[in-house]
Amino acid sequence: MTTMVNYDTPSPFSDSDSDSDSENFHVGSDLSNSIFKTYLEFSSSSSITAVDLSKIQSFLTSSSSGALSCLICLERIRPSDPTWSCSSLCFALFHLLCIQSWARQSSDLSAARAAARLPITAETAAKQATWNCPKCRSSYSKSQIPRSYLCFCGKLQDPPSDNPWILPHSCGEICNRPLPNNCGHFCLLLCHPGPCPSCPKSIKTRCFCGSFEDFRRCGFKNFSCNRHCNKRLDCNKHNCLEICHLGTCPPCRARDVYRCRCGKKEEEKECCDRDFRCENECKKLLNCEKHVCERGCHAGDCGECPLQGKRTCPCGKRVYEGMPCDGTAPVCGATCNKLLNCGFHRCPERCHKGPCVETCRIVVKKSCRCGGLKKEVPCGTEINQKPPKCRKLCKITPLCRHASNCKPHRCHYGACPQCWLLCEEEYPCGHKCNLRCHGPRPPPNPEFTLKPKKKKSNHHTAYTPGIPCPPCPEIVWRPCVGQHIGAERMMVCSDRARFSCDNLCGNLLPCGNHYCTKTCHPLEIQSSLSEHRKGSESCEECNLPCQKERMPICPHPCPLPCHPAECPPCKVLLKRSCHCSAMVHAFECIYYNNLSEKDQVAVRSCGGPCHRKLPNCTHLCPEICHAGRCPAPDKCCKRVTVRCKCQTLKKEWICQDVQAAYCDIGYDPKDISKNQFGLGLLPCNSDCKSKVQEVDSALQLRKPKVLEKKEPENEKHVSKRRKRRDRIQEGKQVSKPQKLVGTLKRLLLFIIIVAALIAVTYYGYKGLLRLSDWMNEVEVQRAKRRHQRI
């Protein structure tokens, strides 16, 4: 989704001075949209777009509000003023006249200092002079002093300032400058201040390990898939276990026991160091069985004995074949003719054993470099002789970088003297070497070898000719590995040691809601150049549950772990009874909470009668299921049968009349039960008394007559004690089989009762579960039908 970058529409402003005409310029949101329109058509990520365009946005805001000031004269930069902007680092804007004056003065001062300190002419110093940007101190040559007023992109000279729909100092056309990283694409913004954003075009690219392919913006095309690299390592045995990374895979670190090349020694080593040599000599007997192999630890065969086959005399002129390897070749008697140590003459002795003479005695003529002087000297003794002095100038060109600035010197033997100018070679960091020149020197004159001079004890190795520049010794402020503000330390520029400030990381986690609580660590950041920092450490993973407030607000927490995007819609089923409590509705939380109060009341209605008892009578509310109290409870129109106290007389009244009658006699209709409602409101008459008497007589006739039991005559005279004794004896006369049968019956009855209880409990529980499932299915079907209706 394309995200437009909007800026506040500033009010028109005018820039007027006492010596200039009034000019009006208006920059609105239409201007901002037109500048970014072409770029945003290719942009797909709002967060990256905002970062890329932030600096341009600040320039636009400052320009539209009239807040841009020249850092040289401190005056406000008006839309009609000719300007120049730094194109190296800061992209700051200056008046054209101010920067021209600044550049000329700075370059003249630099040339004057160079001419005073270095042995160069004023013209050479003027050509090599440089000047710096007043803000970022970026260096420019004298030829780069601006001479004309150009737009930001540099295509148009003297851009117009009277067009209100074009940004000041802009040509209004597509910038079309090459984008960073040399991707081959060009800037799509309209001519703009500040740096060009990263390339917004989408291309198909692969991750570092090549296992995952994705569409990415060209400016951020290099990425890691965060999976294992799994590339085959150099050992062709193991795979890379690192997370998808930039560059070549590290050496294989799998440990195992390996043998050396000769196989005599076993050591546990990493796979990358598996091919090693032990410190023992081979000492294996060669094929001649007279000599042993003098090679160190090696693989394969030792080879033939080097003393077998053809043998020569010491001078190498005569060849002897068939000699045993332990025999000594004789001398041939011819002249040795081996090259002596001087490198020019040969040994005049006869073929001999051992080294030739060390000092050559042949007389030769030596000349200086220019050939003006000559001297006879014995070849082997020239090292102890003084060379002839020549008054002519040395014609050898110095090899250091100061060849055009070095002072001339006289003809000499040996190497040319060392250059004493400052090195001033630029380090990759931008600083310059402040040591004496230590570049290479021409080789000494081969015609005459001088005796080496004794080195002085205080000679500094930093000035030794031919060595590279030492590491940069400048002191710079360097941030900690976590890039925390205020934790910088002063360090030597060449010292690449990284340090931790022991503060909390504080970097925003991928969830976008919490911050890393690890101690300061190297951040895992990929720049636009896709340089993956070595030793970088990812921030901690957020394992907290989602704590966002869900919209619309509901009481249910988000089921997902902490995440950056919006929470998914809440699908929890809410059970809400209808207003009359006759049935229960099931709604999805997101659906129910998105309804207004009025709609919530409407969907909770079951659509049937209210079924709630009216407060003042025994009848139910006749309205459709509704919220709140039932309307007009004292206006009930139901018919009620009213009776007298003896319930002989009866009539039908309207319920509201019955309530009014109770109120008239001082009773509250709420306190009357259902069975007594309407009883006693009619007065009794004469018919009621006769009716009561008839009822009483009928009740008397219905009463049963109590018949007295007559005891037998023979039992009348038996005492109660005897009767009790007879009954006890009858009980004791029960037989044992009867007792056993009775016990078994009671036991069987107990077992049957227990089994029945277990069966009732089991099948009752099963039935309740099935009933619950059935009711849930009915509720789900009702909810689906209700959603379909909506």
UniProtKB/TrEMBL annotation:
Q: Which GO terms describe its cellular component?
A: nucleus
Q: What are the TM regions of this chain, as residue ranges?
A: 747-765
| The organism's place on the tree of life at top rank | Eukaryota
Q: Show the GO MF annotations.
A: DNA-binding transcription factor activity, RNA polymerase II-specific; RNA polymerase II transcription regulatory region sequence-specific DNA binding; zinc ion binding
Keywords assigned by UniProt, alphabetized: Membrane, Metal-binding, Repeat, Transmembrane, Transmembrane helix, Zinc, Zinc-finger
PROSITE patterns noted in UniProt: ZF_PHD_1
Q: Which SMART domains match?
A: ZnF_NFX (SM00438)
Compositionally biased residues, Polar residues = 1-13
> What residues does the NF-X1-type domain cover?
183-201, 235-254, 288-307, 342-362, 400-421, 429-474, 511-544, 554-572, 617-639
Residue segments, region Disordered: 1-21, 709-732
Is Ribosomal protein among this UniProt entry's keywords?
A: no
Stated family: Belongs to the NFX1 family.
Please give the name of this protein. NF-X1-type zinc finger protein NFXL2 isoform X2
> Where does this protein come from, organism-wise?
Durio zibethinus (Durian)
